[in-house]
Structure prediction request, 209 residues.
Amino acid sequence: MDWKQRIREAIVKGQKKEVTGIATEAVKEGLSASALVDEAVIPAMNTVSELWRSQEYYLPEVMRSAATMQAAMDALKPYLVGGEHGKAVRVAIGTVKGDIHDIGKNLVAILLEGAGYRIENLGVDLPPERFVEAARQGAQVIGLSSLLTTSMEGMRTVIDCMAESGLRDKVKILVGGAPVTAEFARAIGADHYAENAAEAVEVVNKLFA
Prediction:
């Protein structure tokens, strides 16, 4: 039986109830949990990202697949050797001060985790110092989200604080959100802009290819 293919199909189709049993049985059959993550879970979420990018999937389908991916990861984690899974790249992501929206930010975090990155989901309505602290703790990419025009300037404040702390050159700053544009990203000194979650994964993949 092709366990990897079954896991990929379950994630893409959002079969959360089934994927836990499939993943567990695959390990019992002798497959490496690490290989299942790298060759089934991550490729499945890459497929979901592409389906969303091509508008074949919309937010409900993506969220179902993301929840299924998380269920698969929960089933496999006990069998993973410490430090074995994924890229050794840490990404901290959060919504800036004055904004409590989190769906888009959470989706980016889920897709990046599915792509193998170590994610710290910082939360919402965050002061600049929280992002600076994440950089001090080793985050290599800082993701800034804003869904309100009134909170967009908070991104500039974070970048300024990062510079004042002496950490600006040690991190890559990625920004996004409904009102954010590539022009705005350049104006505030961000390193990268992503129009959506799938593009955010592409940006980070290119940084650490």
